[in-house]
Model the fold of this input.
Amino acid sequence: MNEREALLCKLSGAQFAAYEMRLYLDTHPSDQRALRSFRAYTEQAKALRKEYEEKFGPITSPDSFGDGRWDWINAPWPWENPKEAR
Done:
């Protein structure tokens, strides 16, 4: 696994954990420990996304407008990644 894939995996994990904590908080809104976990995972995901985009470019097309250029087209297409082309 290269650096790009590893960072994307970490980001995916943090986003998943934040989402799961949000679902849990929908039914347990007073759970302070869960709220702290949700905030921590959300911050971790935010930091990992920033790191990923600084190193490898935008993750989604709406993120491509940051510096006035359309960089979305420069990223590898899904069929250019052997793992995603299956």
